[in-house]
Specification:
By secondary structure, the protein is an alpha/beta fold. The chain has helices at residues 2-13, 62-76, 92-101, 114-119, 147-168, and strands at 30-32, 39-41, 49-55, 81-87, 108-110, 126-130, 136-141. The model is unreliable at 1-17 (pLDDT under 50).
Length: 169
């Protein structure tokens, strides 16, 4: 009985052990554009502070997170900050309808579900804040109005770290 409990516990928590965590390097990936045919490659974003945001049209909190991240993107884009939204809808038309109601100005890509599995995404939306060296510095699951203030503080800190490192070189 004890062995069965141990095995079941290990199986339950096993997927979590592969999740991308704070301090891990963001693996390189390439995904096709959602609204354009261009392929986005994370290797082309090296040196920038990056927020990778996983979302779907059926995700209620995404109605708050996408516009909030657009405000941050517009504010900090010129300082080296980028947002990439990874859409997980199976029906691309649903994603496009969502974006008509909630337009954003940052890059949007589509995914077949393999990238969230690879990174350990378990809830929607989930965002990974990555510093200019490519390390995950924060994982943000879910989104409520006001969460953008905390993210803004983190983004400002990471942009300042990047500026300080560049000035030392």
């Amino acid at each position: 009985m004890i062995l069965r409990c141990v095995v079941l516990t290990l199986l339950w928590f096993a997927p979590l052990s592969y999740a991308l965590q704070v301090g891990d390097p963001l693996p390189n990936f390439a995904r096709p554009g959602l609204l354009h045919s261009d392929t986005l490659r994370t290797e082309n974003l090296k040196g920038r502070v990056l927020y990778i945001d996983f979302w779907a049209s059926w995700c209620g909190p995404c109605r708050v997170s996408l516009p909030a991240m657009d405000v941050l993107f517009r504010e900090f884009q010129s300082q080296g900050f980028t947002v990439v939204a990874v859409n997980l809808d199976k029906n691309e038309n649903e994603a496009q309808a969502f974006l008509k109601a909630h337009p954003v100005s940052y890059p949007l890509v589509k995914d077949d579900g393999s990238l969230p599995k690879r990174l350990g995404v378990v809830g929607m939306p989930t965002g990974f804040l990555v510093d200019h060296t490519g390390l995950v510095r924060a994982v943000h699951e879910g989104f409520r109005k006001g969460d953008e203030r905390k993210l803004r503080t983190q983004i400002v800190r990471l942009l300042e770290e990047a500026r300080q490192q560049k000035s030392r070189q």
